[in-house]
Specification:
The complex is a heterodimer of chains A (382) and B (352).
Chain A (H helix, E strand, L loop, with lengths): L24 H11 L8 E16 L5 E17 L3 E5 L6 H8 L7 E6 L2 E2 L5 H10 E4 L13 H11 L9 H11 L16 H13 L5 E5 L7 H18 L2 E5 L3 H7 L2 E6 L2 E7 H6 L4 H9 L5 H5 L31 H5 L20 E2 L14
Parallel strand pairs in A: 3-8, 3-9, 6-7, 7-8
Antiparallel strand pairs in A: 1-2, 1-4, 4-5, 9-10, 10-11
Chain B lengths: L23 E12 L2 E13 L4 E5 L6 H9 L7 E10 L2 E2 L5 H7 L4 E4 L3 H4 L6 H13 L3 H14 L5 H4 L9 H13 L5 E5 L7 H18 L2 E6 L2 H7 L2 E6 L2 E7 H6 L4 H9 L38 H5 L5 E4 L5 E7 L4 H6 L1
Parallel strand pairs in B: 3-8, 3-9, 6-7, 7-8
Antiparallel strand pairs in B: 1-2, 1-4, 4-5, 9-10, 10-12, 11-12
Classes of the chains: A alpha/beta (382), B alpha/beta (352).
Chain lengths: 382, 352
């Protein structure tokens, strides 16, 4: 167990490496060194500023010209603090998975910055990027397609050590993989089995073991439990919470199931059509939502308790999410919003603490991107 | 059991079948599949019934046999490898398993229709939705292409697809997920059946759209006074729409109850565990209760109660004797209508 803990060797990392602009060999060294510096609990470990991803829409075969863009993520800013779980919720197509891919550098951001320990990682490449990736790992949604069916569990988890040999020397790898299997609650003797020999919940545990292999600091979980059965979901959620305490991990937990997100998250961000609609602590978002979209989303969740449901108000939105290739002007939610006025079509609401709640210590005083933000409890029975 | 003579073709006037007799009754149904690893017993003696205007929710995890039961009712099981060794499926008192293929075809779509989970893969991508909707009328009622199209537009209007007349010639990929599911509902409704089986109708949809679709389904059910069998794994969706619930585990019904009762006082350890293992939206809990272990392999169902390896209350009797669906009563013996639990220790579970 002890080997899995991070060894804090380079405490004397140079501060303020954020000023490094061009990545030459020397600064790359510096950057890599900086990534080993620990971040104390409650400090931001990942800072996202104005992140944008537009996928171009092209026409023509030989001479492709761009005719537009799918604005999957359109200016998102948030912080992830050391040791916390930040939940991101939203409907399909709102860009939450694209955010995950951008943070992993699996997609190149169109604009914006992602600071990991003060260093903008969107500009990195080569060795420095590899070092970042070691510290930010991912757990994927579908445990049936994210594991290679032709590789054994040992190879799947051990592959990470091929790419980052400094984490585990060659002779040590098998033992390390077995240790990881034990950590996620699988029998270490299963090391030579293939993914098809496991159930969905067990496969997701393999996915988690792979995510843990490199002792990362941040794990980005993209819908990690949505493909699992209810009784197995609880097992995996409990495992993830246990691992977080044990290895001091920070989670970015992306899901569409609002109940699971409330359970696991310290803070929650609500996304709509490529923008953050509202962000705050779980109590602020769930018990004191101020953005109409959050309120509609929460009120639509079926509650497994017929009695508490009867007193609840339900807001049923009309229509579908507009196309991200051609989002509405002003506030993106205005086409489905019951509060929309002329101002909403003209002015893009900024994500900030609403004017009326400024200075108040009410739980409604959290960032919300609405011109007419108003507190409304939709979760509890009246 | 009086057999009331009714030709399958004559449409019964609304409410005529209400006289206490269930619309559909499944009795001791068994379904098994031959696989390379032996015989998988997917359904092991299921009993349930639905009356007109009633919603029965069948709740269970994957592999519990809930969808296989539905497919057996629809007569769309792949046989072989599937086999129905035992059981009866009575639709208005007539056993459908004894009917000829031709007779069943008349019932399918006309009297009993099904809504599938994944609308994108259930619709044919190379045919327009208008054509696919119209097929119901052309095949069953012999309408002309033109008449069928007019009917399709009418149907699309009824399930609230905007600009139906303009969209009737569109293809499935041009619709959003919620709209596609509406088309599936329209298709099931086309011939105004008496019973609709909805197999996870909203699982693939977002919560806001899910609420729209469930509302529409409930509204149409009221309007046509249909019976509805709602198959789902989502305890939340069930709470919203069902009248009564049947919980399935490893091919058996382990608990039946009216919807309010089940959530208030579960009488089976499996149901209890399920209810405790879901996080709540309206309160932040501590560690989730997790049912340990995995659902059983259907080729090797544990002896006795199938839930015994995962059950916190299991005793020796649970490993040897299969519990029947015992009627559940109040502590003083007072009757609880519609409640049953297949647990040797239901008394301890509900009252203890």
């Amino acid at each position: 167990m002890a080997e899995l803990k991070k060894t804090d060797e380079s405490m004397d990392a140079t501060p303020n490496v954020a000023e490094v602009e061009t990545v030459d060999a020397a600064s790359e060294e510096e950057a890599v060194a900086a990534f080993d510096a620990p971040v104390s609990r409650g400090e931001p470990i990942l800072q996202v500023r104005g992140l944008v991803k537009h996928f171009p829409l092209t026409q023509g075969i030989l001479f492709k010209r761009q005719v537009g863009a799918v604005k999957a993520v359109d200016g998102i800013s948030f912080d992830l603090y050391q040791g916390e779980t930040l939940g991101i919720v939203g409907e399909s197509g709102c860009g939450k998975s694209t955010v995950a891919r951008l943070l992993m550098m699996l997609e190149k951001a169109t604009a914006g910055e992602v600071f990991y320990k003060g260093q903008d990682i969107t500009k990195l490449s080569g060795r420095a990027l590899k070092a970042v990736r070691r510290n930010i790992q991912m757990v994927f949604q579908d445990p049936y397609t994210s594991l290679n069916p032709r590789m054994t569990v040992g190879d799947i988890i051990g592959e990470t050590f091929e790419i980052h040999p400094e984490v585990a020397p060659k002779g040590d790898r098998r033992r390390k993989v077995q240790e990881l299997l034990d950590v996620v609650g699988l029998n270490p003797e299963y090391i030579n089995r293939y993914p098809h020999q496991f159930s969905g919940g067990q496969r997701q545990r393999i996915g988690i073991a792979r995510g843990l292999a490199l002792n990362p600091e941040i794990i980005i979980c993209d819908e990690p439990v949505s493909a699992l059965d209810v009784s197995v979901q609880a097992q995996v959620v409990n495992l993830m919470e246990k691992l977080q305490d044990e290895f001091n991990l920070s989670y970015l937990f992306i899901a569409h199931d609002l109940s699971i997100v409330r359970h696991i998250s310290d803070r929650v961000g609500v996304m709509y059509l490529g923008k953050m609609a509202e962000i705050g602590t779980d109590t602020q978002i769930y018990d004191h939502p101020t953005h109409p979209y959050t309120q509609a989303l929460l009120s639509a969740v079926p509650v497994p308790d017929p009695e508490s449901r009867e007193g609840r108000e339900r807001i049923i939105l009309t229509g579908d999410v507009p196309s991200p290739a051609n989002p509405p002007s002003g506030c993106r939610f205005r086409t489905r919003c019951w509060k929309a006025q002329d101002k909403c079509a003209e002015e893009v609401p900024l994500l900030a603490v609403p004017e009326r709640f400024k200075g108040s210590d009410s739980l409604a005083a959290h960032e919300s991107a609405c011109h007419f933000a108003e507190e409304k409890d939709v979760v509890h029975a009246a | 059991m009086t057999i009331i003579d009714e030709t399958a073709e004559s449409p019964a006037p609304d409410g005529a079948q209400d006289a206490g007799r269930p619309l559909l009754e499944v009795r001791d149904l068994h379904v098994e599949f031959s696989t390379r690893d032996g015989v998988a017993k997917a359904v092991n003696g299921v009993n349930y019934s639905v009356a007109a205007g009633e919603t029965l929710a069948v709740l269970g995890e994957s592999g519990s046999g809930k969808s296989v039961t539905a497919q057996a009712i629809m007569g769309i099981l792949d046989m072989p490898p599937g086999r129905i060794p035992k059981g009866e499926i009575l639709f208005r008192g007539q056993d459908m398993l004894k009917m000829s293929g031709e007779e069943r075809r008349k019932i399918r779509g006309n009297k009993i229709a099904m809504i599938f989970q994944d609308a994108l893969s259930s619709l044919n991508p190379v045919l327009s939705v208008g054509y696919q909707l119209g097929e119901m009328f052309r095949v069953h009622q012999g309408l002309s292409k033109k008449e069928a199209k007019a009917k399709s537009i009418e149907l699309m209007d009824r399930v609230k697809i905007p600009a139906a007349a303009a969209r009737v010639n569109d293809y499935p990929h041009q619709f959003s997920g919620g709209m596609r599911q509406r088309i599936m509902i329209a298709m099931a409704l086309a011939l105004e059946p008496d019973l609709i089986i909805a197999d996870e109708p909203t699982t693939a949809l977002d919560v806001t759209v899910q609420a729209q679709v469930m509302d529409l389904l409930a509204e149409l059910q009221r309007e046509y006074h249909m019976g509805l069998i709602l198959i789902t794994h989502d305890l939340g969706v069930v709470a919203d729409v069902a009248d009564k619930i049947a919980v399935m585990y490893a091919g058996r019904i382990v608990e039946t109850a009216p919807v309010h009762e089940l959530y208030k006082r579960p009488a089976h350890p499996y149901t209890k565990g399920l209810l405790e293992s879901i996080p709540r939206l309206d309160q932040k809990g501590q560690e989730l209760y997790a049912i340990k272990g995995l659902p059983p392999n259907l080729t090797r169902i544990p002896s006795g109660c199938a839930f015994n390896p995962r059950c916190p209350q299991a005793q020796d009797i649970c490993r040897t004797d299969i519990p029947q669906l015992f009627p559940v009563t109040e502590q003083d013996g007072g009757e609880l209508a519609g409640r049953g639990s297949a647990c040797h220790f239901w008394k301890e579970t509900i009252h203890g």
